[in-house]
Description:
Chain A has helices at about 25-60, 70-100, 135-140, 165-175; strands spanning about 20-25, 100-105, 105-110, 115-125, 130-135, 145-150, 155-165. Chain A is an alpha+beta fold. In chain B, a hairpin with a 3-residue loop joins strand 2 and strand 3 (about 70-75). Chain B starts with a strand and ends in a 6-residue tail after the last helix. Classes of the chains: A alpha+beta, B alpha+beta.
Amino acid sequence: MQDxxxxxxxxxxxxxxxxxxxxxxxxxxxxxxTIGWIxxxxxxxxxxxxxxxxxxxxLLKDDDIPSWLPIVLWALWPALAASxxxxxxxxxxxxxxxxxxxxxxxxxxxxxxxxxxxxxSVARSRxxxxxxxxxPMERRFGLATLSVYTAGTEHSxxxxxxxxxxxxxxxxxxxxxxxxxxxx
Amino acid sequence: MPSEHRLxxxxxxxxxxxxxKDLLVPGLVALFAARASESQWQIWAMFLIxxxxxxxxxxxxxxxxxxxxxxxxxRSGFIFRRERRIPYDRIHNIDAIQNVAHRLLKxxxxxxxxxxxxxxxxxxxxxxxxxxxxxxxxxxxxRGTTAEERTDTAIAPSPPAERLxxxxxREVALLGVLQGRGLVVVGAxxxxxxxxxxxxxxGQRFFGADAAGRGVLRRFVLAALGQGAAPIQxxxxxxxxxxxxxxxxxxxxxxxxxxxxxxxxxxxxxxELRSEFGLLTRVTATIPTRRIQMLTVHxxxxxxVFKRAAVRVDTAGxxxxxxxxxxxxxxxxxVREEALPALMRAVLPVAxxxxxxxxxxxxRAFRRAVRPALVTPAxxxxxxxxxxxxxxxxxxxxxxxxxxxxxxxxxxxMRWAVSDNAxxxxxxxxxxxxxxxxxxxxxxxxxxxxxxxxRFGMATVLVDVAGGHxxxxxxxxxxxxxxxxxxxxxxxxxxxxxTAFRW
Lengths: 184, 503
């Protein structure tokens, strides 16, 4: 796929469908980073807990656990913390750079994926229903997730998160089929 | 006000039978447990079943249905009343099941399905055969007609049915041979034997004492290397058992096929396909041609030997009971190659079997596909290192050779085509599948690239349709050149955008 160098500024709340490819809201980077840090912290916490338990068992002369194991695990701790931290910091940036979407007369198209790239296209007439949802973290940043449901099997739900709330609502209103096109 | 109909009088029997069948095993278990233990409370608990059964009976007796101009109305219940209205337009399938008891009394269990949902929309248990035919006619008449044409006295005369496919017993037996479903029965039998503790004794009888049975392979290899006598007798016995097993499998499979598909008839009445099949349990399944989302033609290696094929359609709609669903999907479980084009045209007019402009995948697809294909032989060889030791290299070489050959043939077999009406995709070397996805049924299109794909400049196109959950093959075209993939995607999306989707 061609490198996604083309830039177009993110649209604001009340823009009608824009023919050019749009990006996510820049605050999505911070949102994903925050979530990444929380997840990394949880993983490290569980890891530390398990290692501490093993250390304790070895200190109490438990024969099941080899004595070198806790030492190795503790030695690996900084490396694990560093890689998780780097991932939590870097990946949202990449995700932001490689995710674009587009809403026009034809329908909705989403390009996403850093390593495994994906482009999904849903025509307007194939949209069954649409959700705009906000998790607690998303609410704090003023972002929302747009979920488009189709009758397909692999792509029964096409989700795009990291959109500004108003933008997501506008996209939903734009995609809602006119009542006389209701075919089901 | 259209008149109300009730279920057949014998529905009480069948409703009761259904309840008892569900409660039989737990009831027996409770009974045995009660006998073994001191307390008798289990037996008293069983009396709770009685009001449960009475409630179910009441429900059966209280069902009334009528044919309103635009919808079918089904009412049930005396105390907790329920009214269900199903517009004729929404009804996808009307299926009927008859087991031996049903056939004796000339009644059928009728199930109505609508799009989506996970269960049957309405179950009429049981109706007489005439009542079932009336339901089918009324639903058919009520569908897609204007309001003026719909009156409750308008029952169109039964439309002339065109017989598309009829399978004599010989064909059904051949189907059994081709399907190889014997393993299912064996699995069940094995489970039963295990429960009864007979597996060990049978094994002993066939393979002699344990010590002599094991280590056969190692002794064989040693014999090949000139050390020790070859265990000819053991191997001969094992081979004999194996061959007998395979033959028994096929015979069982034939029996299973005859049970399931005896008297298979596929007819087309206006816009509906109807199939009837079954020996003891007779199933009548209907599929409106409009609801067909995807059609797949399957040919296995044996199919090619006998010049047959199997046709399957996928419809949107509930995941109904396995029995009807699984068998309805195989529209024509076995059909002769010569008859296939005509059948396909009758079933799905956009599926033109005489496609001429087949396209191939990227010329370097083999190079892209071969490296991942070598992973499996490597993993298998690593797993067998402990047993084979130095022979692992030979095993790896053999497996890799097979993987390379299979990949080459598979990639060479991939073909696709797109017309104004449908996307067609063919793939598979030994087991080949040809899938037709009408453009009017396409839901979403996606283009995917793995890191390998990006290096080679390829992409995968997936054309998504409704109802393809259990499909063995779908229109997922791998190893396309990137610009070709994008062109295909754009063409399909443009076509779906310009048409409204009608269930």
